[in-house]
Amino acid sequence: MSLLEFESVTLKFGGLTAVDNLSFGVQEGEVFAIVGPNGAGKSTVFNLISRFYDPYAGAIRFDGHDLLRVKPSAVAAYGVARTFQNIELFEHATVLQNLLVGRHRHRKTNLFSEILFTPAARKQEIENREMVEEIIDFLDLQAFRDKMISGLPYGVRKVVEVARALATDPKLLLLDEPASGLSVEETSDMRWWIDDIRRQMGITVLMVEHDMGLVSGVSDRVLAMADGAKLALGTPAEVQSHPAVVEAYLGKAS
Amino acid sequence: MRIVFKTDYMQDIRPWKDGYQLSLYLILLAIVTAAPWWLDDFYLGELTNVLIWAIAGLGLMILTGHTGQASLGHAAFLAVGCYANVVLIEAGVPFLLAFPVAGLLTGIVGATVAIPALRLHGIYLAIFTLALSVLMDDIIVLAEPITGGVAGKYLGGVEIFGHLVDRWATPAPFFWLVLAVAVVVTLGYINLLRAPLGRSFIAVRDSEVSAQAMGVDIARTKTISFALSCAVTGLAGALMGMFAGAFNNETFSVVISIQLLMMIVIGGLGSIHGAFLGAIVIGFLPQFLSISKEYAAAIFGGNTVAIPGLEFGIFGMILIAFILFEPMGLYGRWLKIRTWFELFPFYRKDMFKRQKSYLKTERLR
């Protein structure tokens, strides 16, 4: 059974069909990429998983849970973490605080034990920091630990977002254009990190990406979309040479 | 510049950076605690007033400074706290019980108000809360059997373990009472900020979508923030009632709400220091103005007749100046000055400059 499963999902905004009868499954342990031209509905797929939108029809299942039956904040509790296309960090907090927010779903204390800062709250804070420090080491963020996000360069913010998503200790990581706006070196770093996230941490990765070099480098399977519908699904090489995909990107030979 | 080498997670978790910083705060606390011995009764009263405002400011800071929900209606919650305290004491409940219960009741009222407020953002929330503040005036008049209506209520001193605590008869114990409340609230606030809940407040403030994606329940977090904020404000209201002695429906007017919000903006949104610094400005400005008016009259001639609206005019100008030149408030200015000295001569002008943020096309509001 797939870890994440889309079953004939359709989403309409008024007359516009953003996602059209889309079905696919992400297997546990794979890197699954979604590609497609602008406006193909790739980010909308992510926002559907995050429950920002309610689909018009269809079902979305994660790890045996019906995602459509829960609140948006409960999706993270099942072990789905995500990054955003236009970085959505907590601007006026430090990198460490941002990552610690990622630990929120593991919170065991309540309002009163936190205000009194009981030994349980203290222990939890130490545990959270141990986890977060591992991620800081993994993504080389040591130099930025106590820096405010508002003062960080774009490339670092991008990495911090991945770090924050990892801090939730997810089963499935959704990366929305992890390499957009990154330099060639930063993109190749990102490529190794995605590889390590899958191999070392055993986290399934679902990503939307335009950089075909990165997509063919790390992903096991690729889903090509256009106008909200599935064009092709297969290995990177298969999808790249698929006639429908070539047509969507380059147009028809006349 | 002092550089702290961190070798233990506790160094990050405990509220103070190092022993030096802790000792500075303890010395400050000791000096303030000893105020009754080095201040005359008038200025002790003023200092008490500043501390009460600071507690109210801390209450509003939780909601506006840390959760990002603007409120122009916190005078209403001051009123709830004040009247709850008095009504309970009149019913024979001892002060030490009535006071926290007044805070608790205000918190419950706040959480109830939060439910319709959850869907509102920014300016709409400000208008909603402003309406609340206006309504409270009428509610107090209408609920005359409980609140005394337009005639108001009077609360003399209260008894704590057989000791009289009264603003006029025994200013020193009253000052210590207020100081103790301020310290307890501040410590609770610090604890909150270093725990998951405080961080989730900041997360909701800075980006609701990603807070949600991290598993923070937005509605729940906002409700808790409202409740905590109102509870603290209620405590401040109870103290304000004891400080004023007599109060009626006009004591907690919309003007107080606006002053509260101005106070935390001037002090510095999103910092505990900001509530205290803002309270010092708001608390001492009237005195400062009347003293400087006398000086001005002595120099330029003319009379010292009160000019109506002068105080508010000056408040307004200060607020505009802060928003234009120092959006981070007094605390932000203090941080800059401190950094300038710590890094001398390497301070750069743009060190604290805010970067333009990127497009937020994915905001789902």
Automatic annotation (TrEMBL), chain A:
Pfam family, one: BCA_ABC_TP_C
Keywords in alphabetical order: ATP-binding, Nucleotide-binding, Transport
A GO cellular-component term linked to this record: plasma membrane
Coiled coil stretches, renumbered: none
Domain of life: Bacteria
SMART domains: AAA
A GO MF term: ATP hydrolysis activity
Keyword Transport attributed: yes
Residue span, ABC transporter domain: 4-252
PANTHER family named among the record's database cross-references: ABC TRANSPORTER ATP-BINDING PROTEIN, CONSERVED COMPONENT OF ABC TRANSPORTER FOR NATURAL AMINO ACIDS-RELATED
Protein name: Amino acid/amide ABC transporter ATP-binding protein 1 (HAAT family)
Organism expressing this protein natively: Ruegeria conchae
TrEMBL record, chain B:
Chief subcellular location: membrane
Chain ranges passing through the membrane: 20-38, 44-63, 70-89, 95-115, 122-143, 174-192, 224-246, 252-285, 297-325
Cited CDD domains: TM_PBP1_LivM_like
InterPro entries in UniProt: ABC_transp_permease, LivM-like
Membrane topology annotation: Multi-pass membrane protein
Keywords carried by this UniProt record: Cell membrane, Membrane, Transmembrane, Transmembrane helix
Any one of the GO CC terms: plasma membrane
Protein name (Swiss-Prot/TrEMBL): Amino acid/amide ABC transporter membrane protein 2 (HAAT family)
Organism: Ruegeria conchae
